[in-house]
Design goal:
The complex is a heterodimer of chains A (329) and B (295).
Chain A (H helix, E strand, L loop, with lengths): L5 E12 L2 E13 L4 E5 L6 H9 L7 E10 L2 E2 L5 H7 L4 E4 L13 H13 L3 H14 L5 H4 L9 H13 L5 E5 L7 H18 L2 E6 L2 H7 L2 E6 L2 E7 H6 L4 H9 L43 H5 L4 E3 L5 E3 L7
Parallel strand pairs in A: 3-8, 3-9, 6-7, 7-8
Antiparallel strand pairs in A: 1-2, 1-4, 4-5, 9-10, 10-12, 11-12
Helix pairs in contact in A: 3-4, 4-6, 6-7
Chain B lengths: L3 H8 L6 H11 L1 H23 L32 H37 L1 H16 L2 H12 L3 H11 L2 H14 L3 H8 L4 H37 L10 H8 L8 H28 L7
Helix pairs in contact in B: 2-12, 3-4, 3-12, 4-5, 4-7, 4-8, 4-10, 5-8, 6-7, 8-10, 9-10, 10-11, 10-12, 11-12
The chains are: A alpha/beta (329), B mainly alpha (295).
Chain lengths: 329, 295
C-alpha cells in the first residue's frame, strides 16, 4: 500500500480552561488515502472540529495546543512546521469549508473578489486571470449565470449558493485535502442533497480527498468510504462505512445508527422503534480519566469499563473499536 | 445540466446594496439631512469664499466696532481694529475645516492603529496598548495640547498634531471593541483557513467590517476638533498668520460688553458648524448601526 496522504498518530490536543488543562482529543490516530473520503461522526463537543482545526494549524491561540502526537501531510510533519509554511499549505493544499455559509463569507467584498483573492495569494495569478478563474469556479459549483454573479455580494445570495461559493473558494487552488466541517447542517434538506452531489462530483473530477465532519449518519452513508466515530475526544470506532453500519462494534455507534430512521436496507411492514442514546456527553473534567467515558450511558457497562480505558480491538475486516465488549456486540 | 431548483433561484430578487440602504436610513433623519446641506454650504464657503469675497481679513478697512448693518459694505461690521468681520469669518472657515478634518484624521489614524493591534493580537500587546491608551485618557487634554503647542510653536501642523494626540483614545477603544467582536466571526477563521496573513486579516478582512462605528466617531471627532481649536485660539495658542474663529473671539473678548457682536458672530459660526457635524454624525449612526434600523 502506498503512503497515505495524511497520517495522524496518537494526537493529543489540550485545551486550557478555567477548570485546568483538559485533553479534548485523546490519543487519536487515523489515515487518509489519496482521493479517499473519510467521515468523522459524533455529538457536539466530541472533538471533531478540534481535529480539523489542528490539521489546519488553527487551534485557538493561547487556549488549545497539540500536546503530543504527529500529523503528517504528504510525508511532512505539520505539528512542528513553521507558521509561514502552514500558511502556504492552508487554502492551497489543505482547505476547509465551514458550517455556517451565512457567516463564512466576508460581507464587504463580492464573492468574485474573495475567490480571486485566494488565487492571487497562492497561485500568483494576475487580477484579471484570477477574476476569470473565479467565474469559472462559480460555474463549476453550478451557480447559474456564474459570469453575471461573480460581482455579487454575499448578502445577494441564498444559503445554498453561499455554501457553493465557499466550496469554490476552498477548491480554487486544487487542494489535496478538503475538510468540510458540517457543510450542510445550516441548509435545508433539498439543498443538502445538492451540496452532497456537488461534493461527490467534484471529488470524482479533481481527486481531492475529503474529510467530512458531521453528525448526520445519513450523510456518512451517502458520502464516505470510511468513518471514524468519536466520543468525548476519543476514537470510539473506525472502519469501513458499510461494515460499521452493518455491524457496529461499539455501543455508541450502535446507538447513533439506531437513532436514524432511513438507513434500514429493506423497508418492511415491521417498524422498529427509534431509540435514543440516553444521557449526555460527560463534562470536560471527565475527559482524560482512565476509564471508558461512554460507560455512564452504556447498557453493557461492567466494572471493567469504570476501572480502565478500553484499548482498541481490531477485527479481521479492519474495523477497530475501543470497547471492552466489542466482541459481544 | 439543468436543475429546476437552480433555475428558480435566478428568479429571486436580489437584495439591495447596503450603501443604498444606509442612504435611505440617513434620508429619513430630517435634521441630519438639513445639517448635511448646511455643512456642504460651509465647505463650499471655505473653498471658494475667499475668491468671491476678496477682501483681506487683516486689512483695517473702516472704523472699529461698526455694527452689523450700519454700513452695507461691511455687512457683519468690523472688529476692534476696524477689520471686516465677514472677511475674517470666511477666511476662518477654511482654517476651521482644515484643522477639524486633519486633526480628526490624525486621531483616527492613531486610534485605529492602536485599537486594531490591541484587538487583533490580544495578550500582552493588548494589555500594553490599552494601558497606554488609558494613560492618554486621563491626561487633562486642554493642558496637554497647550504644552505641546507652547513647546513646539503655534503652527497649523503642530496644532493639528496636538489636537490629534489628545483625542484618539475614544477611537482606539471603539476599534478594539469591534476587532474583538469580529475576529471571532466565522469569515475571519475562513480567511485564515485560506492562508491569509495577519496584516491582511487585520486591514482587509476585519477593518472594513469594523468601519461603521469608527466612521460615526470620526464625524463627531471633526466637530470636537473644531471646538478644541477654537479653545486653543481663544487662549492665543494659534498660528498668528491665519485667522480662525476662536482667534476672533479671543482677540475681541475684552470689548465683549461694548461690542458683543464681535464675539457672538464667530461664536455662532462655530456653534452652527459643530452642531451640524453632530447632527450628521447622528444621522450616520442611524444609517450604519443595524440595531437602530428597526425603528
Amino acid at each position: 500500500m502506498t503512503e497515505p496522504l495524511l497520517k495522524v498518530e496518537n494526537l493529543r490536543i489540550e485545551l486550557t480552561t478555567r477548570a485546568g488543562v483538559t485533553p479534548v482529543i485523546d490519543n487519536l490516530s487515523f489515515e487518509l488515502g489519496h482521493g479517499e473520503n473519510i467521515s468523522f461522526v459524533g455529538e457536539s463537543g466530541c472533538g471533531k472540529s478540534m481535529t480539523a482545526l489542528s490539521i489546519m494549524g488553527l487551534l485557538p491561540e493561547g487556549v488549545g495546543r497539540i500536546a503530543s502526537g504527529s500529523i503528517q501531510f504528504d510525508g511532512e510533519e505539520l505539528t512542528t512546521a513553521s507558521t509561514e509554511r502552514l500558511r502556504e499549505i492552508r487554502g492551497n493544499e489543505i482547505s476547509m469549508i465551514f458550517q455556517e455559509p451565512m457567516t463564512s463569507l466576508n460581507p464587504v467584498y463580492t464573492v468574485g473578489e474573495q475567490i480571486a483573492e485566494v488565487l492571487r495569494a497562492h497561485q500568483g495569478l494576475s487580477k484579471k486571470a484570477a477574476w476569470d478563474m473565479a467565474a469559472e469556479l462559480l460555474d463549476a459549483v453550478r451557480i447559474p449565470n456564474a459570469k453575471g454573479r461573480v460581482g455579487d455580494y454575499p448578502f445577494q445570495m441564498s444559503g445554498g449558493q453561499r455554501q457553493r461559493v465557499m466550496i469554490a473558494m476552498a477548491l480554487a487552488c486544487k487542494p489535496k485535502i478538503l475538510i468540510a466541517d458540517e457543510p450542510t447542517t445550516a441548509l435545508d434538506v433539498t439543498v443538502q442533497a445538492q451540496i452532497f452531489d456537488l461534493l461527490r462530483d467534484l471529488r470524482r473530477d479533481t481527486g481531492t480527498s475529503i474529510i467530512m465532519i458531521t453528525h448526520d449518519m445519513g450523510a456518512v452513508a451517502e458520502m464516505a468510504e470510511r468513518m471514524i466515530v468519536m466520543y468525548a475526544g476519543r476514537n470510539a470506532e473506525i472502519g469501513l462505512v458499510d461494515q460499521i453500519i452493518d455491524h457496529p462494534r461499539h455501543p455508541y455507534t450502535k446507538g447513533l445508527i439506531s437513532c436514524v430512521p432511513h438507513i434500514v436496507a429493506n423497508l418492511t411492514e415491521e417498524r422498529h422503534d427509534l431509540t435514543e442514546v440516553p444521557g449526555i456527553v460527560p463534562s470536560l473534567q471527565e475527559f482524560g480519566k482512565n476509564r471508558c467515558l461512554f460507560a455512564s450511558r452504556c447498557n453493557l457497562r461492567t466494572d471493567e469499563c469504570l476501572r480502565e480505558r478500553p484499548p482498541a480491538r481490531e477485527f479481521e475486516n479492519g474495523q477497530k473499536a475501543d470497547c471492552w465488549h466489542a466482541e459481544e456486540l | 445540466m439543468s436543475d429546476p431548483f437552480t433555475d428558480l433561484e435566478e428568479e429571486i430578487e436580489k437584495a439591495r446594496h447596503p450603501v443604498a440602504e444606509a442612504w435611505e436610513m440617513f434620508r429619513r433623519n430630517h435634521a441630519a439631512l438639513v445639517a448635511l446641506v448646511v455643512l456642504i454650504g460651509v465647505v463650499i464657503m471655505a473653498i471658494i469664499g475667499p475668491a468671491l469675497y476678496a477682501r483681506d481679513p487683516y486689512d483695517m478697512v473702516w472704523t472699529p466696532f461698526t455694527r452689523p448693518g450700519e454700513n452695507w459694505d461691511f455687512i457683519l461690521g468690523t472688529d476692534y481694529l476696524g477689520r471686516d468681520l465677514l472677511a475674517m469669518i470666511i477666511s476662518g472657515t477654511r482654517v476651521s475645516i482644515i484643522i477639524g478634518l486633519a486633526a480628526a484624521f490624525v486621531s483616527v489614524f492613531i486610534g485605529v492603529t492602536v485599537g486594531a493591534l490591541a484587538g487583533f493580537y490580544r495578550g500582552w500587546v493588548e494589555e500594553a496598548l490599552m494601558r497606554f491608551t488609558e494613560f492618554f485618557q486621563v491626561l487633562p487634554t486642554l493642558l496637554f495640547s497647550m504644552v505641546i503647542v507652547a513647546l513646539f510653536g503655534a503652527s497649523l501642523p503642530m496644532i493639528v498634531l496636538a489636537i490629534g494626540i489628545v483625542s484618539w483614545t475614544a477611537v482606539a477603544r471603539i476599534t478594539r471593541a469591534e476587532f474583538l467582536r469580529i475576529r471571532e466571526l466565522e469569515y475571519v477563521t475562513a480567511s485564515r483557513a485560506s492562508g491569509a496573513r495577519n496584516g491582511k486579516l487585520m486591514f482587509r478582512v476585519i477593518l472594513p467590517n469594523a468601519l461603521p462605528p469608527i466612521i460615526v466617531q470620526s464625524a463627531l471627532m471633526v466637530g470636537s476638533a473644531i471646538l478644541f481649536e477654537a479653545g486653543l485660539a481663544f487662549l492665543g495658542l494659534t498660528d498668528p498668520n491665519v485667522v480662525s474663529w476662536g482667534q476672533i473671539i479671543g482677540s475681541n473678548r475684552t470689548y465683549f460688553l461694548d461690542a458683543s457682536f464681535t464675539v457672538t458672530i464667530p461664536g455662532l459660526a462655530i456653534f452652527v458648524t459643530v452642531l451640524c457635524i453632530s447632527l450628521v454624525g447622528d444621522g450616520l449612526n442611524d444609517a450604519l448601526n443595524p440595531k437602530l434600523r428597526a425603528r
